[in-house]
């Protein structure tokens, strides 16, 4: 785990900076998945600042934890967190979506800190199951994490992997669903309803917890260790698409929309106000 303990207030400041960075780089590139990146940022914040024992210095260590971002379309969130953790300089994101750049619209292993190429939906959980089985066979202590979107649960590969995860008793595997309830063509419940999620994953033999995906304490408690020995862990994190920017929250068009200059200024103003309020509370 990270050696420096961060308070919830520290994480809140980081999330505001991450949100500013996501909007900055998506605007600079003129492309990106704004809403989904903002919905999963608090999850990544807790993972990289409280849970994962991975760093630029230990990334080649075979005993490091593995993180696989299955919802690859929200790669901008991962990019800003990896930059903050020192895997590369933030200025390198000026190349986001540029010709011949490695910083494209999906995670690729050409980017320092990225474990697997992902983006094809339903891809991450099967890879994570394979990594977790390998750890069991090697009697290795590392844990495996993957972040999925609720929309990608329509892919059948997830449910084959769910069967395997339970069959092999992978309590070293934690899957997180960024459950923001929206996808590109509408509400997830209308496109391909996947509820009741808790009942379904429990029926597949997983230990399941449903939490607020923007609550740092709840995320930390759910992610810090196996929920139940002998079972893979499923964290259903209810989130808000476009979280933190009032006119983006729960608005389907922000799945793939890039802010205009005026919208970016309004978003920055909201982030500045939230940061100022946070400092008042902290004083």
How does this model look, in words?
By secondary structure, this protein is an alpha/beta fold. It is built from 9 helices and 7 strands, in the order ααβααβαβββααβαβα. The strands form 2 sheets. A 5-stranded parallel β-sheet has the order 1-2-3-7-6, sandwiched between helices. Strand 2, helix 5 and strand 3 form a beta-alpha-beta unit. Helix 1 runs antiparallel to helix 2 and helix 4 runs parallel beside helix 5. The chain is globular, with a radius of gyration of 18 Å.
Count the E strands. Answer: 7
Structural class: alpha/beta
The share of residues in helices is 40-55%
Q: Please state the overall shape, judged from the principal axes of the Cα atoms.
A: globular
State which percent range the strand residues make up. Answer: 5-15%
Q: How is the largest sheet built, in terms of strand order?
A: 1-2-3-7-6
Which assembly state applies to the chains in this document? Answer: single chain
Order of helices and strands: HHEHHEHEEEHHEHEH
Average predicted local confidence, pLDDT: 95
Rg result: 18 Å
Number of helices: 9
Show unreliable segments.
Answer: none
Largest sheet: 5 strands, parallel
Q: How far is the N terminus from the C terminus?
A: 29 Å
Give the secondary structure arrangement, pairings included.
Elements: H1 8-29, H2 34-51, E1 66-69, H3 75-84, H4 124-137, E2 144-149, H5 157-167, E3 173-179, E4 182-183, E5 186-187, H6 188-192, H7 197-203, E6 207-212, H8 216-223, E7 233-238, H9 261-282
Parallel strand pairs: 1-2, 2-3, 3-7, 6-7
Antiparallel strand pairs: 4-5
């Amino acid at each position: 785990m990270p050696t420096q303990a961060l308070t919830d207030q520290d994480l809140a400041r980081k999330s505001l900076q991450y949100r500013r960075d996501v909007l900055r780089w998506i605007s600079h590139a003129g492309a990106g998945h704004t809403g989904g990146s903002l919905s999963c940022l608090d999850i990544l914040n807790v993972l990289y600042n409280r849970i994962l024992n991975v760093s630029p210095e230990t990334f080649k260590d075979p005993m490091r934890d593995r993180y696989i971002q299955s919802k690859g379309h929200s790669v901008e969130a991962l990019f800003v967190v990896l930059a903050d953790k020192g895997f590369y300089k933030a200025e390198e994101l000026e190349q986001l979506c540029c010709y011949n750049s490695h910083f494209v619209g999906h995670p690729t292993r050409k980017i320092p800190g990225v474990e697997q190429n992902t983006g094809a939906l339903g891809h991450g959980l099967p890879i994570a199951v394979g990594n977790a089985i390998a750890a069991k066979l090697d009697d290795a202590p590392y844990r495996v994490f993957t972040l999925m979107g609720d929309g990608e649960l329509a892919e059948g590969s997830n449910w084959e992997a769910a069967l395997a995860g339970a069959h092999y008793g992978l309590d070293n595997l934690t899957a997180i669903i960024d459950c923001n309830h929206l996808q590109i063509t509408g509400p997830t419940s209308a496109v391909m309803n996947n509820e009741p999620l808790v009942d379904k994953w429990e029926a597949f033999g997983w230990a399941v917890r449903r939490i607020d995906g923007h609550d740092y304490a709840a995320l930390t408690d759910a992610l810090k260790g196996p929920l139940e020995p002998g079972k893979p862990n499923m964290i259903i994190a209810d989130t808000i698409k476009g979280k933190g920017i009032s006119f983006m929250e729960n608005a389907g068009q922000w799945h793939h929309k890039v802010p205009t200059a005026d919208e970016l200024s309004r978003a920055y103003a909201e982030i500045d106000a939230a940061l100022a309020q946070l400092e008042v509370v902290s004083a």
